[in-house]
Amino acid sequence: MLLNIKNLHVEIAGKQILKGLNLGINKGEVHAIMGPNGTGKSTLAAAITGRDGYEITEGEIWYKDINILDKSPDERANMGIFLSFQYPVEIPGVSMTNFMRTALNAKREFNGLPPIAAGEFLKLMEEKKKLVEIHSKLTNRSVNEGFSGGEKKRNEIFQMAMLEPAMAILDETDSGLDIDALRVVANGVNQLRTTENAFLVITHYQRLLDYIVPDFVHVLFDGRIIKTGGKNLALELEAKGYEWIKEQHLV
Amino acid sequence: MDETSNNDNIIEQVTTSEYKYGFFTDIETDFAPVGLNEDIIRFISAKKEEPEWMLEFRLKAFRHWQTLEEPNWAHLNYPKINYQDIIYYAAPKKKKQLASLDEVDPELLDTFNKLGISLEEQKMLSGVAVDAVIDSVSVKTTFQDTLAKHGIIFCSFSEAVRNHPDLVRKYMGMVVPYTDNFFAALNSAVFSDGSFCYIPEGVRCPLELSTYFRINAANTGQFERTLIVADKGSYVSYLEGCTAPQRDENQLHAAIVEIIAMDHAEVKYSTVQNWYPGDKEGQGGVYNFVTKRGLCKGVSSKISWTQVETGSAITWKYPSCILQGDNSIGEFYSVAVTNNFQQADTGTKMVHIGKNTRSTIVSKGISAGRSNNSYRGLVRILPRATNARNFSQCDSLLLGDKCGAHTFPYIEAKNETSIIEHEATTSKISEDQLFYCRQRGIDTEKAIGLIVNGYAKEVLNKLPMEFAVEAQKLLAITLEGSVG
Fold this sequence. Notes:
The structure holds two protein chains of two kinds. Chain A has helices spanning 41-49, 73-78, 96-110, 118-131, 136-139, 149-163, 179-192, 207-211, 231-240, 243-250; strands at residues 3-12, 15-25, 30-34, 54-63, 66-67, 81-84, 91-95, 142-143, 167-171, 198-202, 216-221, 224-229. By secondary structure, chain A is of the alpha/beta class. In chain A, the strands form three sheets. A six-stranded mixed beta sheet of chain A has the order 6-9-10-3-11-12, sandwiched between helices. Chain A has a four-stranded antiparallel beta sheet with strand order 2-1-4-5. A two-stranded antiparallel sheet of chain A has the order 7-8. Chain A is globular, with a radius of gyration of 18 Å. In chain B, 23% of the residues lie in helices and 35% in strands.
């Protein structure tokens, strides 16, 4: 199993958000996590990536058969866990090119490789930019500075393409995207799918799952996964809303 | 360059890792006795075999200094300096003229190696001529020949006193008279050596001129003096870089830099200052009290200061421009970083005297640890300065919650046609930015380096290429361990 989350309990500032979440993801799979606002979807992403302030009070997160709870966020990233942010931040004065090269070389150093040659790096940039139809003028700018909402999300997928993670988490990547941008982003993700990597797609809406077709859909409610199904579960949710599952759960 | 081939081992290695300049070179040193009086000044002057007029200048400055009080208006806090407890002169003993690097004390060469300075290979690698100053006496000056072809004089201050007395007497003290302030008076009395540069009319200096300063003997103050004169229509880019070895006692550094730009002349002065800042507990470190001032004497002249200040326990420094010539331009670009217990009070003065004079100030302060970082700037528009313009931008970046950033802008406008703009921001490195970088595999320290360099980019871009690379590394290193 690539990612195995066992009985995960997470608190933020003393408030319990995740209350015993279990989730197993194999290579080659796409999992979707759906659920109403405030049920802990983004908390799950933060816990997997090791963000400060998210206290794991119980449970384990195993990645490639290693318990990663004592690994730093950068170690987890370099081990191949990637998060496409819901709200990517701006870093003024730092060019995308410089940022990407620093990130890529950090990963290479982690894996005992020498820094990438300049020519090879630029070639890689060109190749991956095409994947998400991102313009050179964007990569020449500072990280996310002056990017539109859609451009920021494309930029996230571009970075994912550059870093080639084994486990990619997409946190509400569809929010703020128009249908064209959504298609571009989804195409990018689909081209990156292999039998060796896996995706965890966090979303409110079924819409994105028309383009990135999941193998499993999980419903997150009140800090736990209360229902798991195939891609049809997403359609069912779209049609019926979350209430019927909540009712089922409470009964 | 025969010497070059003989010294293949001296390889250009630009500074940086952690504070790696904490080594101490054991060269036999020629000390003056501790303390300061007229006899000491006579001793210094005699040691340097100076002419009578130079001694007179020193004595006048000393007598004036005795009437002055050490200034205390800066936002700085340090124990009282006992000026009688300082050695005012130290020089490496080897004094004979050297024909090649082979004749230089191997220990000294080793010091240069650690510093990443090579005298001859600088030219090959970066096109930079270096006047290396170790403990107050110039050991070797390079590229004299190349520069001589253009009529450019670039030598140690002592040599200039000997070989170009007319130029020195004409310009020394023109911009910073010995009466200017306490530290300027002290420097004028006891200055040990420094650099002199004269660019003749119409000459564009083909090399970036560079001087490395270095304090090297325990308890010895260093009192450098630099004088740059750019004659009509000339251009020069001058680089100054500093490193100092680690030790416990505080070290006093009070330098003077004077720049004079004639009609249509341009001088670009860049500094990377990395004196020993003291340890994490605030012990030791250099006290840096510097008077730097440029005079745009001629019409349409331009003086541009760019500084990256990362070192020293105490920094007191205000590179300034007197815009006397009509249409003259003054610029000040600064990045000042303080960490641990460092304190910096730095900024600039732009004094608009001539018509249509323009000045630009961009100051980027970065504070971390328990440090204090102050910007202090004066924009003064005199009555005759019709259509003067100033733009100032002062930004502060805070890392952590125990440091301080302060801004003291002073504006005096005596001409109604002047336009003065001032912008100021204060920000913190956000947890969001750090986590974003770390999620991409970039560790905290590299992330801080990246973010800080992005913040300071506008200033770093003003530095010559080789310096910019060095400065970028330096910023990251200075802030190591400042978060988390």
